[in-house]
Write a structure and sequence with these properties.
Blueprint: E1 4-7, H1 18-24, E2 30-32, H2 42-52, E3 57-62, H3 64-75, E4 80-86, H4 95-109, H5 113-124, H6 130-157, E5 173-178, H7 186-195, E6 200-204, H8 211-214, H9 216-228
Parallel strand pairs: 1-2, 1-3, 3-4, 4-5, 5-6
């Protein structure tokens, strides 16, 4: 089996997958993609990933990374052998979300990135984990910087509704969500799992949007089961 490609979420990097790299690397080959930092749209990111990795793909994406995984599958369904979608959605942004992202982009341009991030911490984590994980999260997003926040928010705002694609997915698919995720609520995961033939749905207790940090042991168990079944 080839390497598993881990796709980070918006303004995230390999640190998002630190616990998975530590726990799963002894048994499987994992690599973290950075195409989301080098291209302006999800279709461009997907095309770059396909060009850079000519073999079959095993994709594991979190949040925006899951949206990117679906775009890769849309462009080259025959290339994707397995799919894991964590805290993600197949829906396009609503007009309200587009308005909120547009307002945030304006603040990023004014140099008010930290202010926006602090205000949105409550949406990123289950209350049980926010205090402990917020500093590392803020540091990761600040490494990405305002320019990446702006570019990646624009990419997400422009994405297509991928729900018509879901019934055509034929590879083994694992869908995960935190039960207290306020950014991509559990019903988004349920919707994907219901529409993807044979998909496995797992909802994780005491967990918000940052599954890989909030409940790493459970996420690792589920990913290990998924990989072992391939």
């Amino acid at each position: 089996m080839g390497p598993i490609t881990l796709l980070p979420g918006l303004a995230c990097d390999a640190e998002l997958w630190r616990e998975q790299l530590r726990a799963l690397s002894p048994r499987w080959s994992l690599q973290v993609s950075d195409v989301h930092t080098r291209h302006e749209t999800l279709p461009q990111m997907a095309a770059a990933l396909l060009a850079e990795q000519p073999d079959d793909l095993l994709l594991c994406g979190a949040s925006m990374g899951g949206m990117l995984a679906l775009e890769v599958l849309r462009q080259a369904p025959q290339r994707v052998r397995a799919l894991a979608l964590l805290g993600s959605s197949a829906r396009a942004d609503t007009p309200e979300l587009i308005r909120l992202r547009t307002e945030a982009i304006a603040l990023f341009k004014q140099g008010r990135m930290r202010e926006v991030l602090q205000a949105n911490l409550a949406f990123a984590f289950d209350p049980a984990h926010a205090a402990a994980l917020a500093p590392a999260y803020l540091a990761m997003v600040e490494r990405a910087g305002a320019a990446q926040l702006i570019a990646q928010n624009r990419a997400v705002m422009a994405r297509a509704d991928q729900r018509p694609l879901l019934p055509q997915i034929g590879c083994p698919t694992l869908v995960m969500a935190g039960r207290s995720d306020l950014l991509t609520p559990p019903e988004h995961a349920q919707e994907m799992a219901e529409r993807i033939p044979g998909a496995r749905l797992e909802l994780i207790d005491e967990c918000g949007h940052m599954l890989t940090w909030e409940q790493p042991r459970r996420v690792n168990e589920l990913l290990a089961d998924w990989l072992a079944s391939l």
